[in-house]
Amino acid sequence: xxxxxxxxxxxxxxxxxxxxxxxxxxxxxxxxxxxxxxxxxxxxxxxxxxxxxxxxxxxxxxxxxxxxxxxxxxxxxxxxxxxxxxxxxxxxxxxxxxxxxxxxxxxxxxx
Amino acid sequence: xxxxxxxxxxxxxxxxxxxxxxxxxxxxxxxxxxxxxxxxxxxxxxxxxxxxxxxxxxxxxxxxxxxxxxxxxxxxxxxxxxxxxxxxxxxxxxxxxxxxxxxxxxxxxxxxxxx
Lengths: 111, 115
What we know:
The complex is a heterodimer.
Chain A: E1 3-6, E2 11-14, E3 19-21, E4 23-26, E5 32-38, E6 44-50, E7 56-59, E8 62-65, E9 75-77, E10 86-93, E11 99-101, E12 105-110
Parallel strand pairs in A: 2-12
Antiparallel strand pairs in A: 1-4, 3-9, 5-6, 5-10, 7-8, 8-9, 10-11, 10-12
Chain B: E1 5-7, E2 10-13, E3 19-24, E4 31-37, E5 44-50, E6 53-57, E7 65-68, E8 75-79, E9 88-95, E10 97-98, E11 101-102, E12 105-106, E13 110-114
Parallel strand pairs in B: 2-13
Antiparallel strand pairs in B: 1-3, 3-8, 4-5, 4-9, 5-6, 7-8, 9-12, 9-13, 10-11
């Protein structure tokens, strides 16, 4: 069945450091891929998405590229801020629209 | 605010009791999803509706769980004879087709604690 695997956390970085959170997936067909973010005490928010191979999703300085050949959708940001501290979830969806999530990666950014 | 709302936000109950949660989706959205999230894990799909029709249920959804969306608007999720393993955050999301994609918008969740 479809599944998503994320790198283990927590990830701890200093402000302005480069961020990569790895995400790989297993899916039949051509899923759409997403990154969701959950800030402390808040609900899940869509961060970015990509619907087909080689698409790049971007938002708030974060980017991820849909790589079909490596079945990956790694999240990157060039310079993190303290306000980026949150839990990040990689997810995919197929034809029915239901989301399949990874286990989440906690990011802590220190000043 | 026109986002997805859930009620209650927190529920504490004793094992064996029944509980019911409500989700009000974004008004023009025809799809509504329920997920469950336990501590340290990603959300897991439970079930979804298109309008009032329940189109898919996860194998996670035991016969103690039932969900309805009677008029294609709000939805309820009921858990009968709660068990401690039901303790989790229950998330609702709604969506409609836009640009060929059903982008889901999540509510704040209902946190259930079963004592």
